[in-house]
Design brief:
It is a single chain. The protein is mainly α. The protein has helices spanning 2-9, 15-28, 34-46, 50-63. Helix 3 packs antiparallel against helix 4 (50-63).
Amino acid sequence: GWELAIEILSRMDNIPVADAKIGELIGHIEVKSDQRADKLIGLCRLFNLDDEANKVSEVSISRFPTLQTY
């Protein structure tokens, strides 16, 4: 679900709107495991959403000390 939504939004022509929508979506994703956090960060990095990846990483690293960072 959310992986596909991020992929679709990342293809929008209007980059500022896409980034805002992705940021909003990421804000609603419950990161309840280090695997999900890692997957979300990796997906953000794949689509060059470094700011969003950093936000997820900052919040998640304290909750999941085994989180892989990129």
